[in-house]
Structures are given as structure tokens and as C-alpha cells.
Amino acid sequence: MPSIHAYGGRDTTFSVFKTALENCDADTYPILLVDSEEPVKGHGIDPHSDIAWSHLESRDHWARPEGSSNDQAQLMVTSMETWIMADQDTLKTYFGSKLRINALTPVDRQLEARTRSEILQALKDATSDCGKNKGYLKGKHSFEILGDLNPEALKANLLHFNRLLETLNHHLDGTNDNETVR
Prior knowledge:
Layout: H1 10-23, E1 32-35, H2 51-60, E2 73-76, H3 80-86, H4 88-95, H5 116-127, H6 142-148, H7 151-157, H8 159-173
Parallel strand pairs: 1-2
């Protein structure tokens, strides 16, 4: 099964990914998963499209490493907070009755077109009445909430999440008795 490792900043994560590519064995398939930081131009979510590498090259000046595939670059568009915003039921459970639902960004197919700052501000506004040190803070709450998200909520509205699932399912099909990631 896949494992996920958080490495901190973008540049560090990219560096670790490149090292993993150079040193991995045949049973390992490293995938770079980072925030896009900005809406992604184009709508090609096919795992085999170069949309993620094109975005990373344009925005971060990261050249696709030699020997890597298009599907080894995956994006949380525009940030992990977009994924968190896409599952408002989990937000309600996590933050409780003081969560201001009307301050959340509407969940629809346009969620990935919203800016990172817009999503983050909506999370902060929606949780501002949840108590001292209980409002949304990146880092403090983000990874806890991320682990509780319902994939079905994300699949319904996040095209790039679906691209990641397709990639994982493709690479797991031959190695795990056709189990799929849900």
C-alpha cells in the first residue's frame, strides 16, 4: 500500500522526491504531491498528461527529473486547504457547533479555481468563533483534518484529487490483487 511522508517546504519535498527517484528499487514508485499554490491552467486531469509538471515548471522552475513519468507529479489544487474545504462534513465534526457554515466557500466544481488565500481566509473566518487556539491554523489542524477527510467528498468536486486516485489505482492494480484506493 502507498505511504505518505510530509517533508515540509516545497523545495525540500522536491529534493527528497528527486533523491527517491534516483535510489528507489523496482517495487517503489515515488510520487510528488505538493500544493499547486495557484489555480492550474488547463483542465487535463488525465494521469498521463503533463499538466502537473508543466505547472511546476512554470511556477517553481522545477524541471521534470529525467526518468520520471507525468503521473509522478500530483497537485493539491490550490492547497491542502482546498481538500479540507471540499469535505465540510468533516469540518463540522472537527470544529463542532461553533463552526460558521455560512463563511465556508461553496463546494462545487469551481473549488480548485479559487485562490489559496481565498480558501484559507474562509477557513479562518468560519472557525474564528471556535475558541482560543481552536480556529483553523495551517499545520496545527491541517494534518489532523486531512487524515479524517472522506475521499467521496473530495472525489465529487476535486478533479486533481481524482487524477491522484487514478494514478494510485493504476499502480496498485498489478501489485495488490486489483484493490483500489477509495
